[in-house]
């Protein structure tokens, strides 16, 4: 059982570790040769030049200005002084709102901690229930458990204090959540309304494959996408037609059903194989650069390599000649694959990017059912081009349900089997209980320092190690499910990560830890008394989570700012691979926020804080330290380091809000169960009423604020369109939207034959068709000559006027 001494040792170790990381960062960031590691975002924006390009030789590597070392902690106020509006312009709304999650934690838990320590701690401490239980029932506890609700006598009237505090904490949390939801929803609408022109505001994004009709050069693509943020719409599951191609079907459908707003479209194709070949070629080119650089430094010996797996087996050959031959082979395969992509009808997928003349028209299309059959011509708001996950674009729509069912089953078994190592970790949290069953370990575990280290530090470290590989596994599962946007993949992975943390890190840790700690009591008491023992023991698991928060939340967050892995990899690449400034820029690894890992971690701390706020108030200061430290660290990283891959305009906030609400309801459920075992008969009805109130509060927020994150108001769209027409009446919208979405495989393509791939751009609204029956799209065509009787003449006149 962890004592005050064990917690103190753990706190000392983690505070010292965090200080070492922070001081090391403060010094390393001052060195010129590390400038690209700790300020990559400014280099990518072109607003910072390398200090190694000027000055004396030594000063290119080491900062010789002694005054800089006196001000080495200036990064803290520098990170805090940038206003939120400027932060949004600099890093995007996603980054700014992500930081607000940490601020939300401080807003909730600072008043809660003050109230809990002022009221609940004295109420809990001024009892001797645990001492009596130890004497009569041999219940194990430590001094820190005297601060918890476990120290309240059975059936005591003091439980009224905890009930009142539960109501107070719930009302404050709900009030803070509503204000924050309202603020973020307003920020999102303002962000979308104030944005400059965005191709995806006018586009139904056919995110299932790549563009067939148009292709940009690398420079043109960069110029277009630099202003892009999400608000696009996805049209998919275009029905097959034996008489017409996909592009003809799409053009017919939108000319007939959106005649006043349809502008153009881009049929897309499957280029996954081509992308893999290009990726493999780039890898071979990197190896060729490495071997050529190695040979230039020592020309007395040609570099050699093996042709087998990872260069570890196979025939030994000249490395430069081998890589050159491989590049030539891949170049030929890429050319053949490009030709196949252009000519093979099987590459064309039933989806398209459809652009509209107005945002209003795009919003109507995205938010309405397009066909009598609700499974055809599916439209929904989709992500911006940077957010597209291209590897999933060729997955058939009909297979998505099966894929998601399989992944759900796999996630269930992953969660279940992970309980085994989690349970083993909990055995480390109570040495006394294990020594009774394994007395031969007593000589080792009884050493004071080793005992304090094992109980205060080792469980948190072990749990952290087991969770390292989990985000990668969960992201792979999300990719298998077939989601088409990086933001959706991360939100899906975050949801599963949070579920896993809830089941394994929290529930299993509490249950398994309680079983280990009270093993002797369980064996020798009657079954009817076991629930009472569990009710007393669950609050005692706060000591384990305190050690986890210190390891993961204190030392872990401080280690994030040090960027040790990117630091090492940058200098290795800089030494072995970099030959030009472009190579040096590619060697930088700015990273991103990592919503799929960061947000579930924060939510676990919300869960722990809300559950233990009433049960064990001593837990709250450790949570506050995490939120405060993390806010400063990640604000610095967002300003100077992270280069966000996409912009979703804070689309993740409903998930954040919902998970906090569920944590709040679960905390009320735990408190109700705990008080039931403690004989507080008045508590269950009152706490059930509190849970009902919390649930209806969630329903209110969901109905009032969530639509701003799901739908684009037509009023906002019309307002933006009206302003744009007044400011830019001669805007060539089609030219702007024509090249909005290009697969990354073509970004660096400088082939002069792009015109063959681009295809023609036809402005005519009279669609040539091969269809013998015009039952579905009764538009005039060059083949049939006349319109269908079911299509009014006024529609044809309007369509002709678009030309």
TrEMBL record:
<feature type="region of interest" description="Disordered">
    <location>
        <begin position="750"/>
        <end position="803"/>
    </location>
</feature>
<keyword id="KW-0813">Transport</keyword>
<dbReference type="Pfam" id="PF02714">
    <property type="entry name" value="RSN1_7TM"/>
</dbReference>
<feature type="transmembrane region" description="Helical">
    <location>
        <begin position="405"/>
        <end position="429"/>
    </location>
</feature>
<keyword id="KW-0812">Transmembrane</keyword>
<feature type="transmembrane region" description="Helical">
    <location>
        <begin position="449"/>
        <end position="476"/>
    </location>
</feature>
<keyword id="KW-0406">Ion transport</keyword>
<dbReference type="InterPro" id="IPR032880">
    <property type="entry name" value="CSC1/OSCA1-like_N"/>
</dbReference>
<feature type="transmembrane region" description="Helical">
    <location>
        <begin position="101"/>
        <end position="120"/>
    </location>
</feature>
<dbReference type="InterPro" id="IPR003864">
    <property type="entry name" value="CSC1/OSCA1-like_7TM"/>
</dbReference>
<dbReference type="InterPro" id="IPR027815">
    <property type="entry name" value="CSC1/OSCA1-like_cyt"/>
</dbReference>
<feature type="transmembrane region" description="Helical">
    <location>
        <begin position="497"/>
        <end position="516"/>
    </location>
</feature>
<dbReference type="InterPro" id="IPR045122">
    <property type="entry name" value="Csc1-like"/>
</dbReference>
<dbReference type="Pfam" id="PF13967">
    <property type="entry name" value="RSN1_TM"/>
</dbReference>
<keyword id="KW-0472">Membrane</keyword>
<feature type="domain" description="CSC1/OSCA1-like 7TM region">
    <location>
        <begin position="403"/>
        <end position="675"/>
    </location>
</feature>
<keyword id="KW-0407">Ion channel</keyword>
<dbReference type="Pfam" id="PF14703">
    <property type="entry name" value="PHM7_cyt"/>
</dbReference>
<protein>
    <recommendedName>
        <fullName>Calcium permeable stress-gated cation channel 1</fullName>
    </recommendedName>
</protein>
<comment type="similarity">
    <text>Belongs to the CSC1 (TC 1.A.17) family.</text>
</comment>
<feature type="compositionally biased region" description="Polar residues">
    <location>
        <begin position="775"/>
        <end position="790"/>
    </location>
</feature>
<feature type="transmembrane region" description="Helical">
    <location>
        <begin position="604"/>
        <end position="634"/>
    </location>
</feature>
<feature type="transmembrane region" description="Helical">
    <location>
        <begin position="6"/>
        <end position="28"/>
    </location>
</feature>
<feature type="domain" description="CSC1/OSCA1-like N-terminal transmembrane">
    <location>
        <begin position="9"/>
        <end position="180"/>
    </location>
</feature>
<feature type="transmembrane region" description="Helical">
    <location>
        <begin position="683"/>
        <end position="701"/>
    </location>
</feature>
<feature type="domain" description="CSC1/OSCA1-like cytosolic">
    <location>
        <begin position="232"/>
        <end position="392"/>
    </location>
</feature>
<keyword id="KW-0106">Calcium</keyword>
<keyword id="KW-1133">Transmembrane helix</keyword>
């Amino acid at each position: 059982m962890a004592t005050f001494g064990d917690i103190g040792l753990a706190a000392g170790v983690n505070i010292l570790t965090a200080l070492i990381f922070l001081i090391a960062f403060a010094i390393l960031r001052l060195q010129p040769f590390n400038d690209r590691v700790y300020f990559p975002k400014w280099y990518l924006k072109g607003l910072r030049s390398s200090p190694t390009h000027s000055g004396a030789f030594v000063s290119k590597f080491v900062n010789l200005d002694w005054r800089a070392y006196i001000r080495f902690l200036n990064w803290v106020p520098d990170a805090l002084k940038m206003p939120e509006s400027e932060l949004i312009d600099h890093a995007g709304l996603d980054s700014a709102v992500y930081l607000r999650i940490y601020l939300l934690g401080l807003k909730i838990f600072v008043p809660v901690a003050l109230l809990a320590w002022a009221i609940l701690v004295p109420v809990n401490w001024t009892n001797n229930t645990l001492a009596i239980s130890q004497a009569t029932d041999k219940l194990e506890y430590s001094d820190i458990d005297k601060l918890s609700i476990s120290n309240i006598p059975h059936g005591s009237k003091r439980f009224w204090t905890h009930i009142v505090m539960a109501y107070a904490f719930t009302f404050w949390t709900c009030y803070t959540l509503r204000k924050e939801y309202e603020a973020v929803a307003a920020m999102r609408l303002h962000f979308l309304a104030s944005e400059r022109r965005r191709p995806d505001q006018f586009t139904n994004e056919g995110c299932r494959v790549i563009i067939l009709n148009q292709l940009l050069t690398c420079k043109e693509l960069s110029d277009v996408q630099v202003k892009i943020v999400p608000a696009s719409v996805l049209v998919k599951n275009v029905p097959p037609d034996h008489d017409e191609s996909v592009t003809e079907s799409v053009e017919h459908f939108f000319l007939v059903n959106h005649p006043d707003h349809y502008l153009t479209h881009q049929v897309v194709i499957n280029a996954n194989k081509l992308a893999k070949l290009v990726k493999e070629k780039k890898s071979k080119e990197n190896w060729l650069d490495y071997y050529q650089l190695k040979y230039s430094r020592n020309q007395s010996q040609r570099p050699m390599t093996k042709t087998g797996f990872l260069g570890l087996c196979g025939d030994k050959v000249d490395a430069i000649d081998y890589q050159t031959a491989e590049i030539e082979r891949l170049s030929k395969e890429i050319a053949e694959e490009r030709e196949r992509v252009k000519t093979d009808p099987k590459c064309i997928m039933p989806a398209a990017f459809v652009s509209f003349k107005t945002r209003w028209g795009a919003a109507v299309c995205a938010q309405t059912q397009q066909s009598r059959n609700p499974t055809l011509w599916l439209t929904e708001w989709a992500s911006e081009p940077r957010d597209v996950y291209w590897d999933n674009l060729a997955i058939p729509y009909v297979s998505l349900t099966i894929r998601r069912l399989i992944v759900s089953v796999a996630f269930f078994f992953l969660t279940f089997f992970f309980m085994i190592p989690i349970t083993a970790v909990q055995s480390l949290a109570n040495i006394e209980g294990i020594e009774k069953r394994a007395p031969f370990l007593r000589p080792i575990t009884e050493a004071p320092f080793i005992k304090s280290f094992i109980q205060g530090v080792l469980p948190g470290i072990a749990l952290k190690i087991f969770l390292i590989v989990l985000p990668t596994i969960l992201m792979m599962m999300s990719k298998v499910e077939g989601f088409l946007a990086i933001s959706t993949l991360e939100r899906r992975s975050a949801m599963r990560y949070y579920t896993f943390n809830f089941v394994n890190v929290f529930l299993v840790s509490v249950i398994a830890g309680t079983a280990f700690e009270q093993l002797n009591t369980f064996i020798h008491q009657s079954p009817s008394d076991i629930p009472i023992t569990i009710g007393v023991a669950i609050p005692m698991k706060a000591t384990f989570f305190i050690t986890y928060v210190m390891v993961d939340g204190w030392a872990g967050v401080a280690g994030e700012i040090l960027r040790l892995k990117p630091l090492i990899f940058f200098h290795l690449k800089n030494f072995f691979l970099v030959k030009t400034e472009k190579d040096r820029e590619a060697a930088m690894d700015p990273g991103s926020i990592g919503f799929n890992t960061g947000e579930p971690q924060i939510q676990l701390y919300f869960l722990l804080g809300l559950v233990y706020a009433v049960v064990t108030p001593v837990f709250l200061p450790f949570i506050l330290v995490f939120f405060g430290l993390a806010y400063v660290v990640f604000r610095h990283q967002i300003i100077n380091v992270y280069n966000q891959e996409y912009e979703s305009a804070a689309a993740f906030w409903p998930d954040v809000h919902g998970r906090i609400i569920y944590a709040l309801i679960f905390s009320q459920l735990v408190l109700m169960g705990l008080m039931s075992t403690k004989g507080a008969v008045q508590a269950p009805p009152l706490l059930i009423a509190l849970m009902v109130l919390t649930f209806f509060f969630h329903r209110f927020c969901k109905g009032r604020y969530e639509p701003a994150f799901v739908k684009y108001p037509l009023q906002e769209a019309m307002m933006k369109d009206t302003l744009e027409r007044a400011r830019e009446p001669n805007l060539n919208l089609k030219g702007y939207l024509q090249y909005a979405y290009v697969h990354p495989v073509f970004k660096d393509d400088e082939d002069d034959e792009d015109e063959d791939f681009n295809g023609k751009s036809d402005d005519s609204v009279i669609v040539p068709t091969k269809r013998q029956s015009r039952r579905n799209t009764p538009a005039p065509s060059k083949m049939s000559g006349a319109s269908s009787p079911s299509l009014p003449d006024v529609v044809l006149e309007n369509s002709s006027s678009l030309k």
